[in-house]
Design goal:
- By secondary structure, this protein is α+β, with helices and mostly antiparallel strands.
- Helices cover 35% and strands 27% of the residues.
- Strands 5, 6, 7, 8, 9 and 10 form a 6-stranded antiparallel β-sheet that branches.
- Helix 3 crosses helix 4 (83-100) and helix 6 crosses helix 7.
- Bound molecules: adenosine-5'-diphosphate (ADP) and magnesium ion (MG).
């Protein structure tokens, strides 16, 4: 069985349809998509120890199968510079998430390396009742939330489809560098689209994937957050 099917099976056995960020990123990594390093930590002391391994600056995020919108719950702290900030972030995340989601099962946090800033894009998939799996690409942040600037392609994508997906968004010029910023590595983004597309086309039990954000760099791309949703 592939690593991805094992992750899916484990969630199914636990009666879950939504993979945690950690499971989702492990799945992406098994597909050859770059993600942040991440270590689970159940206690404040474990978080500090994990941060020592991951290195500074680091990021703490709530680790819970029941909390999928982590920032809304006060569950994300970025740019932590030392052990004291990690300890404080652990306490703050746990307190906020317990207050906002009293019923949630919370396993602690994940400790991640802090990705250098890049152009934030999103890659997603959905399942259309008629057409099956579709892959979505867009710029992240306000571009997707306010302007809904995204393009859709039917999976499985060809290399030409992946290229077209990048070119069809209204803000496509931003990918080529804008006002002095360097162009991003479009080949790396096309590669992410193709890997995701191939996976969902071959894996009907995956109903939805959300890589939000992916950081696009002049050299490479990195999935900073991920969520995989299974279907019935
Ligand atoms: P949410 O569940 O709220 O979508 P995210 O994991 O996407 O949580 O984190 C919120 C934001 O924090 C991201 O959009 C990104 O800008 C930033 N962020 C999250 N993880 C990292 C990381 N490892 N390195 C750098 N920035 C990060
Ligand atoms: Mg996110």
């Amino acid at each position: 069985m592939s690593a991805a099917s094992e992750i899916i099976e484990r969630a199914r056995r636990g009666g879950r349809d939504v993979l945690t960020e950690m499971e989702s990123k492990q799945l992406l990594a098994s597909l050859g998509i770059r993600t942040t390093q991440m270590m689970p930590a159940a206690t404040r002391d474990e978080a500090v120890a994990a941060a020592g391994d991951v290195g500074y600056p680091c990021v703490l995020k709530v680790h819970s199968p029941d909390i999928t919108h982590k920032s809304d719950a006060g569950g994300v702290k970025v740019g932590l510079a030392d052990a004291r900030q990690v300890a404080e972030a652990f306490d703050a995340i746990m307190a906020s998430c317990r207050e906002k989601y009293p019923e949630a099962e919370i396993e602690g946090v994940t400790v991640q390396d802090m990705a250098p800033p890049g152009l934030e894009v999103i890659v997603g998939t959905a399942t259309d009742p008629q057409f099956g799996p579709v892959v979505m690409f867009g710029l992240g942040g306000v571009w997707v939330e306010v302007l809904k600037d995204v393009s859709f392609k039917l999976a499985p994508l060809t290399a030409a489809d992946a290229r077209a997906a990048l070119g069809e968004i209204r803000a496509a010029r931003l990918l080529d560098g804008f006002r002095g910023s360097e162009p991003v590595d479009k080949a790396a983004l096309e590669d992410v689209l193709l890997r995701v597309s191939e996976f969902v086309a071959a894996t009907p039990e995956v109903r939805e994937m959300d890589l939000n954000p992916v950081f696009a760099y002049p050299d490479g791309a990195l999935a900073v957050d991920a969520r995989v949703i299974l279907g019935g």
